[in-house]
């Protein structure tokens, strides 16, 4: 196999002199958080919440926060995937469009 057809992109980047620690796509960290681009956000009905913590368990980005009588969401890091609303056994979580 010729070098030109090497299967690993990292190989070609190295051949081109790109340093190992330089991301070729985005060379600077972005300060953007999911709260900046999210389309939907969860809201919790505090009367329905029984603090079972299922939303906390399933949230893929660990943005569910425990409060004295209910669970709520860190809207800076919540990406609006809706998994918490799907999994809440009490149907206490509703996803609403960000514009509202
Ligand atoms: S899954 Fe629903 S009922 Fe359970 S803690 Fe979360 S919001 Fe409350
Ligand atoms: S919408 Fe997704 S990211 Fe946001 S709290 Fe629910 S599970 Fe977590």
UniProtKB/TrEMBL annotation:
GO terms for molecular function: 4 iron, 4 sulfur cluster binding; metal ion binding; pyruvate synthase activity. Keywords: 4Fe-4S, Iron, Iron-sulfur, Metal-binding, Oxidoreductase, Repeat. Its cofactor is [4Fe-4S] cluster. SUPFAM superfamilies: 4Fe-4S ferredoxins. PROSITE patterns: 4FE4S_FER_1, 4FE4S_FER_2. InterPro entries: 4Fe4S_Fe-S-bd, 4Fe4S_Fe_S_CS, PadF, PorD_KorD. Transmembrane segments: none annotated. Its EC number is 1.2.7.1. Residues 40-65, 67-98 form the 4Fe-4S ferredoxin-type domain. NCBIfam families: PhenlGlyoxDHPadF (NF045763), PorD_KorD (TIGR02179). PANTHER family: PYRUVATE SYNTHASE SUBUNIT PORD. This is NADH-dependent phenylglyoxylate dehydrogenase delta subunit PadF. It comes from Thauera aromatica K172.
């Amino acid at each position: 196999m010729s070098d030109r057809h090497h299967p690993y992109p990292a190989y070609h980047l190295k051949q081109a002199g790109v340093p190992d620690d330089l991301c070729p796509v985005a060379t600077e960290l972005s300060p953007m958080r999911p709260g900046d681009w999210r389309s939907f956000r969860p809201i919790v009905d505090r009367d329905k919440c029984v603090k079972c913590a299922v939303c906390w368990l399933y949230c893929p980005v660990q943005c569910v926060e425990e409060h004295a009588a209910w669970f709520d969401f860190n809207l800076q890091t919540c990406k609006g995937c809706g998994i918490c609303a799907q999994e809440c056994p009490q149907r206490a979580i509703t996803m609403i469009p960000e514009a509202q």
